[in-house]
Automatic annotation (TrEMBL):
Gene this chain is encoded by: Setd1b_0
Name of the protein in its database record: SET1B methyltransferase
Domain SET: 95-212
Keyword Aminoacyl-tRNA synthetase tagged: no
InterPro entries, A to Z: COMPASS_Set1_N-SET (IPR024657), Post-SET_dom (IPR003616), Set1-like (IPR044570), SET_dom (IPR001214), SET_dom_sf (IPR046341), SET_SETD1A/B (IPR037841)
Organism: Calyptomena viridis
Domain Post-SET: 218-234
Keyword hit for S-adenosyl-L-methionine: yes
Entry coiled-coil feature ranges: none
Length: 234
């Protein structure tokens, strides 16, 4: 026996009505081009038409208010330092660096790619500690036989200790004629030390900056070898 398949009806919106209640159980059937165009045109018109409550009226006061907002926004972004943007870019795409033996002192940090001037090179990473803890650690490092401690002062109260917990930035040597400089920036209410390039840095060129140690009676000899070398780090 053969049963006649009931003719599938169309709904008021032009779409085919499924007899079984589920499109998957009825298999594939081709949609008429007229029905498809009607459906696409209706959806396109609905998408292009903005809601009534979001339509902007050409009212002079409204236009003036929006113009003022744009002016304030442009002045704000223009006056803000681009350090935060550069820092985010540095975190996203780190510079290619390597540490190896230096002609200045022991180990040094070298560029593996050209670095343009005024670029963030690397962040000085370590533990944020107070001055009291820094004094205790410095004495302990001397007792342990650690000749060099990698402490970088952020401000009057905070010091970054990278002696046992840091990154490649601690290998950067001092130079009286450096190609980089250190700068303290604030990111999400936290102060960070970032090394910037003063000039263009070539591949395999050693990265250096001025330590700017305070003047003391016991002098630390400088081995940078630059023409204007001061002779001492402090």
């Amino acid at each position: 026996t053969s049963f006649s398949t009931p003719k599938k009806k169309k709904r008021d919106d032009g779409m085919r009505e499924h007899v079984t209640g589920c499109a998957r159980s009825e298999g594939y059937y081709k949609i008429d081009k007229k029905d498809k165009l009607k459906y696409l045109n209706n959806n396109r018109a609905f998408a292009e038409e903005p809601p009534a409550d979001t339509q902007v009226r050409n009212h002079p006061a409204e236009c003036q208010r929006r113009s003022e907002q744009r002016r304030l926004l442009s002045s704000f972004t223009g006056s803000c330092d681009s350090d935060l943007l550069k820092f985010n870019q540095l975190k996203f795409r780190k510079k290619k660096l390597k540490f190896c033996k230096s002609h200045i002192h022991d180990w040094g940090l070298f560029a593996m790619e050209p670095i343009a001037a005024d670029e963030m090179v690397i962040e000085y990473v370590g533990q944020n500690i107070r001055q009291v803890i820094a004094d205790m650690r410095e004495k302990r490092y001397e007792d342990e036989g650690i000749g060099s401690s990698y402490m970088f002062r952020v401000d009057h109260d905070t010091i970054i200790d990278a002696t046992k917990c840091g990154n490649f930035a601690r290998f950067i040597n001092h130079s009286c004629n450096p190609n980089c400089y250190a700068k303290v920036i604030t990111v999400e209410s936290q102060k960070k030390i970032v090394i910037y390039s003063k000039q263009h840095i070539n591949v395999n060129e050693e990265i250096t900056y001025d330590y700017k140690f305070p003047i003391e009676d016991v002098k630390i000899p400088c081995l940078c070898g630059s023409e204007n070398c001061r002779g001492t780090l402090n």
